[in-house]
Amino acid sequence: MGGPQGSASGSVSLIDTQQAHQENSPLNAWRLNWTVSHSDTLDLIREGQFVGDLESVVEPLRSIDWEDTSSVEETCRKALEQLNTNRGILRKALYDLPNRPELLALCEHPSPVDTAELGQQLDKLVLYEDETGFRVRMHIFWSGCDDLPHNHRWSFASMILKGQFRHLLYGLETYEDTMQLPIPKPLQVRIERVGSIYALHHSMLHALVAEENAVSLFIRGPVVKERGYLVDPKTGKRIWHLGVAEETPEAIARKRMTPELLSELTAKLDEWGILG
How many CB atoms neighbour CB 194 within 10 A? Predict the structure, then answer.
C-alpha cells in the first residue's frame, strides 16, 4: 500500500519547510510530507467542508452505564449511525492523527510475533479518547483474520463499514481464573454485514472470522478489569491478554503504528471509500 499523492498548496509555507529541516526531526519531516501529500483534503477541512465534530457526536456516551448492554447498544447506535452518515467526521479525525501523538501512540499494527497463534490480524486506529475512559476506534481486518474465542476488558459496540464477518458467540465467562475451561463451542453464529451494529458485554466470549478485508467502527468502553483472555479451541487453555501498562516495552514497540503505516492505511481506506 502506498500513501495518496497530492499537490502542494499554500498550506505549507517556505518557513514551515525551513523550520522542519532546522529541527531535523524525523517526526516533523513526516508531518510535513503528510501535509504536502494530503494538502487538498486538509484545505477542505480548514474551509469547513467536513461539517461536524467527533466529540459532540459522542458526548452522550459519557453518561452510559457500560454494564448495561442494552443501554450501550442504544446510545452507541445513535453515535455510530451519525458517524456513518457523515463520514467527513471520520476523515477529519483520521487526518488529524499526525497532530495528536497521544492518540497515535494508542494505534496498533499486528505483529506476527504476537499474533501468529491468535489470528488477530487487524489494525487499530484510535480516533478519539474521552476523559471518562471510552475510545472511538477504526478496525481494519485483513483477509484471514480468525480470532480465538476471547472476552474483553471493557464492553463495546461496533458497526461494520466494509466487508463482513462470521461472528461466533460462546456465552458468558462463568469459570474462575484457576479452573480449566471446557473446549469452547459456539452457542450462536451470525454473519455481520455492512451496516450491522452489535454491542457486547465484557464478559461475553466471542470470535470473528474475516474471509475478506473488512472495516468496522468501534466504540470501546472504559476498562473494568486488569486482563482478559483468549481460549485455545483445541485444549481450553487460557491465553491471558493484558493491558498496555502490563506489557513489555518490546511488545509495545512491535505493534506500534508507524507514520508510514498510517499513510498506507489512510490510502487504503480512501481507496475503499470508507472516508466519504
Answer: 14
